[in-house]
Amino acid sequence: MTDRYAWLDPAPAARGVMLVAQAGYHLPELDRLRVALAARGIAAGIVVPVVPWKPLHRFRPTVRRLADTVAQSSRVPTEPVSIDELLNRTVAVVVMNDWGVPRTLVERARAVSVPTFAWVEGVQDYDDVDTGLERRAYQRVDHVFTLGEASRQLLGADRATAIGSERISRLWQAPAGTPSDTVLVNSNFTYGVRTDARRDWLDGVVAACETEQRPWVLSRHVAERGRVSYPVSDRSVDELLTGAGHLVSRFSTVALDALASGVELAYHNPHGEQEPTFSEPMGAFTVTRSREELRAVLHEPPRARDDVRAGAEAFLGHHVLLDSSTTAAERAAAVVADAVG
């Protein structure tokens, strides 16, 4: 899609590590990794892909997401430079995924023996069970930083390290707060995955909330396309979680965020997703497959957030490294430092 990138930070004065951001929510994780690398004496900077302008491009989800990344950074990008120019001053590349936009960068870096790393950005359908695609997710880089042990084993323990998530760890360690009666509805039908099910899914969730007389608020993933017939909140999902009693969601990393925050989760799957991450709740949440089952969940008041966290610890610990002795960024920086000497 592009072979040009722009620095969001000043380009490192010496050869350094290139950190590739594709979405606004990548920035906090990558900024912390940049700081952790600097603490080890390794220069690093964040770059964003620059997509050539074409008519109607602004309507594409990927293009909108890249524009949002720059806006959220509050930084002025440098003039775009080519991949070859970037690699001439790069000792390692860290991406958040290795297909789509960054694929060419990863492949060219490997061709010139620049170490490549990918930090898994959230829950993933690694085998493309539900995507209908053949992404070969996280198969192109040299080494993968995973959220937890489950995905490390799936990708291969010899080429993956479980480091966790800065965001999820922060939510897990924050004061629990008090749940409200509000239901947060998370619409995340993106990149063509089960978009045919979105209308029925939303209609069913809203009907269940209103039948049970539960106030609700709708959040949509930034890359979700099309219009919906319900009002959408302009607040961030992090803000909305702080005021929620339940989260209703399909396959989404926000489900992990909710459990880490102590918000009750209903994984609502009437459309028959097959990806296995949320098929075994381990006592952490409820799987609902119909409007009636969802109504039964929402009929009960939300539990205390500390109780939700206690019930979710085994599930979260399986999917996300929650070790607080070091941070995810520090663990990633140690692996990168070993590779670049």
Q: What does this protein look like?
A:
The chain is an alpha/beta fold and 341 residues long. It folds into 2 domains: 4-165 and 323-340, Glycogen Phosphorylase B (Rossmann fold); 172-319, Glycogen Phosphorylase B (Rossmann fold, 3-Layer(aba) Sandwich), CATH 3.40.50. It contains 12 helices and 13 strands. The protein has helices at 27-39, 61-73, 83-87, 103-111, 149-155, 166-173, 198-211, 237-242, 254-261, 291-299, 305-319, 328-340, and strands at 4-7, 16-20, 44-49, 81-82, 90-95, 116-119, 143-146, 160-162, 183-187, 216-220, 246-249, 264-268, 286-288. Strands 4-1-3-2-5-6-7-8 form an 8-stranded mixed sheet. Strand 2 (16-20), helix 1 and strand 3 (44-49) form a beta-alpha-beta unit. Helix 6 runs parallel beside helix 9 (254-261) and helix 9 (254-261) packs across helix 11 (305-319). The longest helix is centred in the C-terminal third of the chain and has 15 residues, at 305-319.
The profile of the biggest β sheet is:
8 strands, mixed
| Count of domains | 2
Which stretches are poorly predicted, pLDDT < 50 over at least 5 residues?
none
Question: What portion of residues is helical?
Answer: 25-40%
State the CATH architecture of the largest domain.
3-Layer(aba) Sandwich
Strand ordering within the main sheet: 4-1-3-2-5-6-7-8
Q: How large is the count of helical segments?
A: 12
> In whole angstroms, how far apart are the ends?
32 Å
- Specify the overall morphology: globular
At CATH level 3, the topology of the largest domain is Rossmann fold
Beta-strand segment tally: 13
SS strand fraction: 15-25%
- CATH C-level name of the largest domain: Alpha Beta
